[in-house]
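Revision sheet: structure tokens.
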Amino acid sequence: MTIKVGDRVPDGTLSEFFESEANGCSLGPNAFQVADLVKGKTIALFAVPGAFTSTCSTKHLPGYVAQAQALKDKGADEVWCVSVNDAHVMGAWGRDQQTAGKVRMLADGSALWTRALGLELDLIERGMGVRSQRYSAILKDGVVTHLNIEQPGKFEVSDAATLLSQI
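Predicted:
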């Protein structure tokens, strides 16, 4: 079953790669519980099928990097990019796209959280495994207040401008 507006996001584990040790986080991948990350916060979340892929790298992530401060000015505590890649790949993609201080690059390496949301995308036949659908959402204290799920192959409703108009 796919998550919908009004639902609380399930707990799960997402990982983030840190370039340097700080705030109790060690160098390299660090695991976080979603329930802890969303508690008391407004999150502008978007998910992509894969790091370093064409639309994700040329349109989706760059739009959120450019609009990160505007989203925060309108009430987002954090902006998240979630993908079914490992934390090392998400960290490298973040460095490439200069996301530091703007967008948290969170890895759902085995697609467990993505599956719990009901937003997985089966690309096994195309040799890409299980990925995430392309979507965006606003989470307030872990509850979905807005959800924009793209149709397959489209990039029309999960962009930064749309989410900025909804927050």
